[in-house]
């Protein structure tokens, strides 16, 4: 008998939800074959078998499982699996009238929510499963409002934000950047390459060019006196289109074009709307940019991801009146670009130099 142990998929979650088994109990499994799909706060994961044998499953679809839990077994043959079933059985709860058979997943919910035996008997069933208890809980919640439930994804975000605020001594710098020249360049570039492109793509590309000159902005602290710089610019982009906050990563930005970045962002936006990112797309970023392009968004102070040392924030395009050299009144556009940075690694002087480099290349753009 081989134990199937749930691995740790990421550092953000204490548990994962079993979405469904890909194979039924009693089916043969090959080594490295996907057997189940689990949902983390960020994405869905296929769990592959580390051995072969006849599958026996323990949790049901919808159950919460923790890393290290035994979620099933692999047996040499079906006879061995049947012997195991006969010897272990299911939990039976004896009562004065007749017994209730309660699955393990159902019992966990019963213990957590304090479901009474009387409530279970009203179901009129002899075998109580997790969906039965979930129905009871839903009915109880309708009878007694207990507040709005916070999603698992939002709770994971809360943990990251709390860790950032409690562990990282953050400073913030804001710089005004004029963007008419960049906007004109983008119009010409978009027409030439038949692509829709905006200021976020320019910011992503410019940021990647600063990797060599500003190594402490791309990477993470190993301990209090050692830093691991990024070998390439892997830039995370914040996206929240109604399915939760995601920070997918564009890898090795220095080696791709503005068109490639634009296409990547389109792909990311579609996945954000559907909540369909995989874990690989959300990992290995070494710097991030918070995109807040609503016209009324002036300043956003972002968090710093615990695995990084800074995050840029791009605000909406604003307009102002100014006097040109001939004292004529004209209109020009600008953006507010912010930088939240880890003061253990980056000082204000370096932060100002970093933003000034971006400002210069924004205001004097070249493709």
Polypeptide structure, described:
The protein has 367 residues and is an alpha+beta fold. The protein folds into two domains: 142 residues, Beta Barrel (OB fold (Dihydrolipoamide Acetyltransferase, E2P)); 211 residues, 2-Layer Sandwich (Chloramphenicol Acetyltransferase), CATH 3.30.559.10. Helices cover 31% and strands 28% of the residues. It has nine helices and 22 strands. Helix 2 packs parallel to helix 4 and helix 7 packs across helix 8. The radius of gyration is 27 Å and the shape is elongated. About 2% of the residues have low confidence.
Fill in the keyword field for this structure.
single chain, 367 residues, alpha+beta, OB fold (Dihydrolipoamide Acetyltransferase, E2P), Chloramphenicol Acetyltransferase, 7-stranded mixed beta sheet, 4-stranded antiparallel beta sheet, 9 helices, 22 strands, elongated
Describe this structure in a few short sentences.
It is elongated, with a radius of gyration of 27 Å. 31% of the residues lie in helices and 28% in strands.
Produce the secondary structure layout.
Elements: E1 2-5, E2 16-21, E3 28-29, E4 34-39, E5 44-48, E6 53-57, E7 64-65, E8 70-75, H1 78-88, E9 91-93, E10 100-102, H2 104-113, H3 117-121, E11 127-128, H4 130-143, H5 152-167, E12 170-178, H6 180-193, H7 199-208, E13 219-223, E14 226-229, E15 235-237, E16 239-240, E17 245-246, E18 249-250, H8 258-274, E19 287-291, E20 310-314, E21 318-323, E22 329-342, H9 348-363
Parallel strand pairs: 10-11, 15-19, 19-20
Antiparallel strand pairs: 1-8, 2-4, 2-7, 3-6, 4-5, 6-8, 9-10, 12-22, 13-14, 15-18, 16-17, 20-22, 21-22
